[in-house]
Write a structure and sequence with these properties.
148 residues; 2 domains; two-stranded antiparallel sheet; elongated
Length: 148
Amino acid sequence: MPYSIGQVAKKTGLSTYTLRYYDRKGLMPFVKRSPSGRREFTDKNLDFIDLITCLKGTGMQLSEIRKFVELAMQGDATLTTRLNIFKQQQEAVKAQIKQSQKFLDKLDYKVRFYTAACEAGTETAVSGNCDLPDQPIVINEQLRVKRA
């Protein structure tokens, strides 16, 4: 039983607008149309849409995804090329994760720093090295703001 675009939107979490946009951009040439022109999606189409969503979520540009879809439509003759695309995207995601971990380390440090500053009542009493986020945050007791 084919799915309507509305049903696919509910199943995938994508809006009908996004699905139509992806179709216009050539990302879903595999979707058949009824005699009246309505898109008719299959479970296999849903799997492919999930892959498109994954690739988009990893930062791949729509033009690159379209090239991948075109290769997939050509069949097994393009297996090696598609594998290489996945390997490249895998490396890109690993680099994103590494950069995100650096950002998270910086945020963790800042949370510890500002927690200590709130406890001390001033930033002036707090010392630490943002470039060495694992180092302890130290509160200089002499600079602590005395509270009544």
